[in-house]
């Protein structure tokens, strides 16, 4: 799911990534001299050399604090004071603080919170800064589309730009190479039918096929990954982004839901999946208790450290072999308050997020660089994550997480998937609940 859910666990530093990004040292550095331009009719990329203090409200770490420290090294006269809030409280607190008389200068972007802040004019439109810095030519288009919205904040991928990504993520499937080999499988499946067959063969070999943290977001990640492989990516985007007339009550969404239901009935998921946290599901997979785990790049460094060469990664397969690579992903993104006294300095922080130095920080903390041109080679599972990510970006196949669709969609998804796994919610009822939430938001 999107920012703040299932992606907040600190990841071990990946030394392979550190070595890779050292090659970036020959890239152009951001200017360390910043001057002020008081021109009222535009923005400036040359900012003051006087001391400036910015406040930054956020919930995800890593990599936020590391990025703050890296920015201060580049701009020693600018101090950024980070203020972290737990995700469960972030949406409410950021709504209150951004609409107060003394809002933070920068805030981690969250669609649930910004859905009311953007229409109220409390988030700075970044179109002029984007033109000044050339962000459209640097950031991957698919990483920016979810950060654009109309002024009512009811439809994404349209209207103005309100945030920039600070680090990217991608959803996929980790697998235990040794367990697959023991079950007679010579590699990861390439179609959904092959995946289904692999789960059955692993189970027949005496191993639990899937680790799932249904108590939190693991169940939604599983459903989301299957859905991405089956449903047309543009139709999926239209629904998540609020395109008028869109619906998730489709044949392919029903097939994805039915697949998860059938896997649960077949015993491919642990009986206690709905009472298992994401961290416990990951731990069970790392200890060799299951053959597959649906998660994302945020888990790669820890799994590589614990499992070594036994862990691999692949994108959830689609119905047909050779389909264009697609996967849900998101970013730790940042917006600027429209009331900030230093909007150009705050924008300089956002621009720093695409720098070679920021790319090194993003990689070291288990995330993917905001700049798609930054080298992302690595070893083991992390290298496989990076290869898959590069293919997805090149194919413009990075999709949003489904909970971006409305501020309350996460509250429908988690219990809804739990019901599907438990067999207490039928497929049509689950999808109808999602669509009802979507329709209410659009009214």
Overview in brief:
With about 450 residues, this protein is of the alpha/beta class. Helix content is about 45%, strand content about 15%. Helix 2 (about 65-75) links the parallel strand 1 (about 50-60) and strand 2 (about 80-85).
Largest sheet at a glance?
Answer: 5 strands, mixed
List segments where confidence is low: pLDDT < 50 over at least 5 consecutive residues.
2-40
Q: Work out the oligomeric state of the chains in this entry.
A: single chain
Radius of gyration: 21 Å
Beta strand %: 5-15%
Number of beta-strand segments: 13
**Spatial order of strands in the largest sheet:** 2-1-3-12-6
Q: How far apart are the termini?
A: 24 Å
Q: Helix content range of the residues, please? A: 40-55%
Structural class assignment: alpha/beta
Taking all residues together, what is the mean pLDDT? 87
What is the number of helices?
19
> Could you say which overall geometry the principal axes of the C-alpha atoms support?
globular
